[in-house]
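name: query_chain
kind: protein
chains: 1
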Amino acid sequence: MLTLKTMVEVFKTNIAEPEEAQLLANALLARFPNSRPSFDLDDCDKVLRIEGHMLCTDTIITIINQFGYDCRILDY
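structure:
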């Protein structure tokens, strides 16, 4: 039996408004339907956290960039 491991990816963005975050969350869900994207807009890094299976960080960054926002992997 194949078990998929849940991945968690965390990104720094420049998304500031809840409406923008919701639009982008919907775009991410369209590409990764079983994922759980969330934004922490109160954090200074405007953090995007996405949980799911078989996530591709390059694709996530590309989706956010296509909407005109900055997005990069958050270094701990």
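note: The domain at 7-73 is CATH 3.30.70.100 (Alpha-Beta Plaits).
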